[in-house]
Amino acid sequence: MPLNLVLVADTHVPKRARSLPGQVWDAVDRADVVFHAGDWVEAALLDEFERRSTRLLGVFGNNDGPELRRRLPATATAVLDGVRFAMVHETGQAKGREQRCEALFPDADVLLFGHSHIPWDTVSPNGLRLLNPGSPTDRRRQPACTFMEAVVDGGRLAEVRLVEVRRG
Question: Which of 23, 107, 108, 111 has the most beta carbons within 10 angstroms of its beta carbon?
Fold first, then answer.
């Protein structure tokens, strides 16, 4: 049976937005597994994700204070239908990212990360898939705020979609 995933990072609530867009909450409500790659900013948002998610995996980011750092790890891993996921907030500069992440996460098939607010979807020379969903609340220099939806099916990451957050 396929697993529906939601990938989100850099929500920055309430600093960049008062709340998470309804479109994102709708996706969270439908997902089998939700990944949040850090920069929650306030623990109340983590509480809401925990209430609404069937299964939640999260890490803290550089903008997350002591309470979030007590409740969340710096890195997280999970195996979903045979696909090995790892997650971290920061991966450093874009140049050399794939090789650097292969060395840091040699047992992962997919690495989820955040920090830059820039969507990213690449595959390293040895097959590590790197995914950054961007930010659903702070697009910075991007054309739109974003998150990702994905499907794990038959022991593989079968589908990844970058989703633009609708305004209004």
Answer: 111
